Amino acid sequence: MGHSTVRAAMVYQHLVGGRDQEIADHVDRLIKKSQKSTKGGRKNTKGKGGKIN
User: Measuring CA to CA, how many Å separate 21 from each of 9, 18, 24, 25, 37?
Assistant: First the structure.
C-alpha cells in the first residue's frame, strides 16, 4: 500500500472498508429502484413497433 507504518495502513483499511459498504448499499438501492420502475416487462428501445431481441 505504501504507508509508512503498519498503523497507518490499518487506519486506511478501516476507513476504506466502511466506504466500500456505503457504496455497495447505494448501488443496491439503485438496482432495486430500477427493477421497480421496469416491472412488468422490458421497454421497447427500438422505436415504434420495434422488436426486442
Answer: 19, 5, 5, 6, 25
